[in-house]
What we know:
By secondary structure, the protein is of the alpha+beta class. The protein contains 8 helices and 11 strands.
Amino acid sequence: xxxxxxxxxxxxxxxxxxxxxxxxxxxxxxxxxxxxxxxxxxxxxxxxxxxxxxxxxxxxxxxxxxxxxxxxxxxxxxxxxxxxxxxxxxxxxxxxxxxxxxxxxxxxxxxxxxxxxxxxxxxxxxxxxxxxxxxxxxxxxxxxxxxxxxxxxxxxxxxxxxxxxxxxxxxxxxxxxxxxxxxxxxxxxxxxxxxxxxxxxxxxxxxxxxxxxxxxxxxxxxxxxxxxxxxxxxxxxxxxxxxxxxxxxxxxxxxxxxxxxxxxxxxxxxxxxxxx
Length: 276
């Protein structure tokens, strides 16, 4: 996915000279195209791209900061809004990036430019793109289902990606790609907190093992679950017990972090130092 820049591009524009964009490796572009589904990129000037991230998870903020070669970053405390169903404090991160990241822009009508990038990524580097979007909007987990009639307990792995609004276009492309790659994938929609969420899901154990071996996720929590599924020698029942405790630890940490943010906000602090 080349970013071509002619000598004409380096002539002054509106009194400002364009700088040569940085080069981003194609595999990295595919991963970032998945990751930015959770971000809001815009172009503020010919030379820079701005990304905005709102999250309640420190791990997600650190991942974005480590993935991008940002020029500047400002991190703010994001107070709850009136239109939020689950009102919570969070982080608001504003990044300034080199224009070499303009392949990730998606603020045109119907995401046309971004969707073309997604098609390119899924065709050439499907696992890198899927890793990015799972890090941003996906789940790797272990479930426990109890069957009352048979009085049995069934444990299973699952991988799920859920997107809203224009995300249905991306979900359709992911579904087709996974089917073409030979996976038994399910596609459906659900209503979560009044929002329509479009989802794809893998539940077949052999598919998930194969998929995870090829999936270069970077989000710390997802890397941990992937490692336990692939490398742990304990039974899936014991893995489920570990997963349940792990999720509780993550939730407690997020709760502590957000309580700290709220306290800082009440004391008049608005901007904070980024953790990366």
